[in-house]
Design a protein that fits this description.
Mean pLDDT: 94
Number of helices: 5
Structural class: alpha/beta
CATH architecture: 3-Layer(aba) Sandwich
Largest sheet: 5 strands, parallel
Order of helices and strands: EHEHEHEHEH
């Protein structure tokens, strides 16, 4: 299975140890790649969104046969078992290629969000981008363990 995470900015150093822990865990079961995109910030939200969307779209152009998910606060929330089934279905029926997008601090325009048919949310709270990257990796790892019917640490 191939998994790509598209993230704006570098990971904050305070989060590095736990990030590496889950990155290594997921990497054992998949071809995992994290693509970091420099966030554009001109001071104007609309300009920032347009430029960040343009920069992201340049990275997504080669992912025509991938299933791409936008992390969006107002999207559907999944339980861990449902998220695992989503990943399993992709693996079994859709080419085993998943990509996840964690947006920039100004978010994305309504038009961009609307164009992303696959969206998921980790709740209505706002999290630091470094932390949401870790939460996503942890949930992917948990999903893999559920799919493999293996125990998960508690």
């Amino acid at each position: 299975m191939k998994i790509k995470l598209f993230c704006f900015n570098k990971l904050s150093k305070e989060y590095l140890e736990i990030y590496n822990y889950y990155f290594t865990k997921v990497k054992k079961y998949s071809d995992l790649e994290v693509v970091e995109i420099a966030e554009f910030d001109s001071g104007d939200v609309k300009s920032n969104q347009a430029k960040n969307e343009e920069n992201l779209n340049k990275k997504l152009v080669d992912l025509k046969d991938w299933e791409v998910f936008l992390l969006e606060i107002n999207a559907k929330q999944y339980e861990s078992e449902s998220f695992s089934k989503l990943i399993q279905d992709n693996k079994d029926f859709k080419g085993a290629k998943l990509a996840f997008i964690i947006g920039p601090s100004d978010g994305f325009s309504y038009e961009f969000r609307k164009s992303c048919k696959n969206q998921l949310s980790f709740g209505n709270m706002t999290y630091p981008y470094s932390l949401i990257r870790i939460i996503l990796l942890e949930q992917i790892f948990r999903s893999i363990k559920i799919m493999r019917k293996e125990p998960y640490h508690k």
